[in-house]
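Input (structure):
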């Protein structure tokens, strides 16, 4: 019952934020839609017709060639974890409530029950509702309060923190090799919020340094690539968390099989994380941050 109340509270909160954004966009376009009502009627009819035709075409294509429309594991991981939307939340909690684990946790919660379960995304939109013990008790009373992760002081400290987490990642791999999956999972819970907080802080600093006051197309592409690298790294670490939880709950079979599966996931995450770090260090120098 406690987990269900938590799920309802957070679901309503995220839904409220999503609806508020949609309502704002609707208001911005209200006048334009009103002045072009007749034209829009025609466009709606045409769009409806073409959408129906396109949907039928998609169904035929999916039926005839399932393999061609399959999504790669990495792309699925990136879209699932980085989006942080209500659909992802509901999908994750539906899967985890069937297992003896928490329905959701705040980032930085090192309880073993949080391994492999959904982490509530802490951003400017949701922070006012979970940023203090009082607010968390009001909106999601069954979640354990965890103070928000503090941002690094500067780009240099962010890079130092990110380098430290690479060492932590190698340590997690060794712990998995020794068969201590729970210990490895807790270490991963410690790594995740630091990488996210320091990584986003550094990307923002690099973006400001490269694109202000003037930017070139090359600079824009560099920043876009860096953001994509961070998203991929965070997505892969999120996948590690999920797989670790599955291993602990016996969903991957015997320990040896679970170890191999988890190690493969960690290897992919380390590669993605290293790609991000190399790029971040290079662009930090270009932006004259270090």
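Output (sequence):
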């Amino acid at each position: 019952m406690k987990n269900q109340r938590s799920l309802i509270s957070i679901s309503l909160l995220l839904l409220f934020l999503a609806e508020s954004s949609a309502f704002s966009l609707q208001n911005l376009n209200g006048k334009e839609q009103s002045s072009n009502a007749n034209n829009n009627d025609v466009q709606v009819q045409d769009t409806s017709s073409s959408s129906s035709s396109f949907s039928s075409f998609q169904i035929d294509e999916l039926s005839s060639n399932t393999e061609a429309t399959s999504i790669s594991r990495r792309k699925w991981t990136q879209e699932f974890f980085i989006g942080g939307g209500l659909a992802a939340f509901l999908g994750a909690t539906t899967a985890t409530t069937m297992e003896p684990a928490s329905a959701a946790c705040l980032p930085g919660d090192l309880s073993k029950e949080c391994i492999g379960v959904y982490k509530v995304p802490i951003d400017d939109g949701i922070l006012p509702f979970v940023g203090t013990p009082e607010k968390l008790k009001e909106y999601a009373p069954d979640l354990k309060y965890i103070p928000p992760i503090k941002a690094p002081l500067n780009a240099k400290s962010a890079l130092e923190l990110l380098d430290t987490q690479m060492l932590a990642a190698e340590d997690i791999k060794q712990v998995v090799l020794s068969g201590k999956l729970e210990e490895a999972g807790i270490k991963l819970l410690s790594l995740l919020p630091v990488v996210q907080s320091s990584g986003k802080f550094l990307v923002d600093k690099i973006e400001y340094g490269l694109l202000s006051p003037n930017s070139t197309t090359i600079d824009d592409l560099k920043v876009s690539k860096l953001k994509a690298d961070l998203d991929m790294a965070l997505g892969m670490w999120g996948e590690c968390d999920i797989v670790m939880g599955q291993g602990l709950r016996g969903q991957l079979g015997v320990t040896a099989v679970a170890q191999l599966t988890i190690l493969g996931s960690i290897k992919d995450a380390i590669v993605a994380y290293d790609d991000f770090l190399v790029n971040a260090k290079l662009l930090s120098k270009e932006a004259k941050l270090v």
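Notes: The chain has a mean pLDDT of 76. Strands lie at 104-105, 118-119.
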